Structures are given as C-alpha cells and as structure tokens.
Amino acid sequence: MLQPKRMDKTLRKYTSFDEAKADEYRYWQSRPAHERMAAVSELSLAMYAIKGTVQDAPKLERTLVHVKRPQS
Predict the structure, then answer these.
(1) Is this model's pTM higher than 0.90 or not?
(2) What is the H or E stretch that residue 33 is in?
C-alpha cells in the first residue's frame, strides 16, 4: 500500500523576499521531475476548481512525442 508523504512543517524566517524566492527555487530544483509535474497538475486542477470552469481538466496521460538526439 502507498504510504502518504509526511508534510515538512519547518518554519523558516527570511530577511527579504528575494531570499525566500531563491530558497523556493532551490527546493523545486532539488525535486525530481515527476514530483514537479505532479505539483503543477495539482495546482492546475485546484485553480480550475476555484474558478469552477472545468469539471475534469485534461491531464497528460502519455508521452506525446519522442525526440532522438545524437549521442555525444
């Protein structure tokens, strides 16, 4: 069974907005791509729900295009 993730409840105090945004950027860059994509999807669905415009927003279900790059 899949275990729910534990929420990090650490509070951080920043001296400037720029410092807070830099820390947020570093955090998201440290997360794997699949976690970042899941977060984007979750936020998009939440925004659709708030606006009440779309009942069931479409999701990226499969890879649309495969691009082969030359080996270097």
Answers:
(1) no
(2) helix 33-51
